[in-house]
Amino acid sequence: MDILSSLLFLMPVSGTLDIRCHFSPPWRLNYAATGPREIPYHILLRGSAQVDDGENPVISMQAGDILLIPSGVPHVLYEGSGHHSTTGKMHRERGLLIRTNGSERKPVNILCGRFILPSSPRQIIKESLPRRLIIRGIDEPGDVTHLKEERVARSRLARLITLMHEEAIEHGPGSESMMNHMSGALFSMTLRMASESDEPPTGLLRLAKRPRLQPAFTAMFENYSKAWTMAELAALCLMSRATFARQFAEAAGRSANDLLVEIRMENASKQLAQTSNSISEIAQDSGYKSDAAFQRAFKKHMGMTPAKWRIQSTLLASCNLTDHTKG
User: Fold this and answer.
1) What is the pLDDT of residue 100?
2) How many angstroms from the chain centroid is the CA of residue 293?
3) In this predicted structure, which of 7-11, 59-63, 143-147, 225-229 has the lowest mean pLDDT?
4) Which structural domains are found in the chain, ordered by start?
């Protein structure tokens, strides 16, 4: 299993399409901070926009661009003429929220939604992304210089966006569910393009650019309960121990041992939330010889005891179910 597939298997991501925006200049969209399990995204289907998150330089978006805000900080999308902008009015149209302003001509079209990360005390994927990530559209200037494989990937991404747009417009039976599933696929494809770019995000996604390290990652992921040594992992990659340790830390931003602990803790948190396995069973599966050692490691890494996390995740699941029933 490749690195990106392994991460998404460990922490499956879903998505939701929240709103479709149609604007004529001047316009402005204000977004509040999101929760720790959410990554807001914006797809600019038509027109142009400026993005200001208050932390980084303002950037410009063109049609076909996809913007992710993994940091979840408040941010603003706006038309850059400098004229007084309006946020428009909201209404629901065939089940989908629409925001638009008063003009008949609406050259700007945006799909806005959120990627929903699984419940976990820590978010490995989120930590591997920059605070702001933009994937440029297939028709961006200079795209002809890209490799054929990247053009194909962009074309595939563009087709997925087109399907989401069509469902948002038509909104037939099952459209909401289909758009949410496509949002999850959009996250995977966006991360793939980010990991294959010339400057991939720091963290685990950078490992995708280092195929020689793949055997070690695969071994830790598929057999995380084993007490791996650096020498064993280095041998799998046909490297010396020192070379392996240096290259792995450079690529992943952490040591192989630290990553092994993270994989163990993520699997443990999933079992605590989704199964009735005892803490002793989970400790053994996670490669710990005693419950006490596991509990110390879990609390140090996750910030709470396994028992507290199990209770918290159960309450969270109950609240989500209640909210869904009310909705």
Assistant:
1) 86
2) 31
3) 143-147
4) 3-201 (2.60.120.10), 210-316 (1.10.10.60)
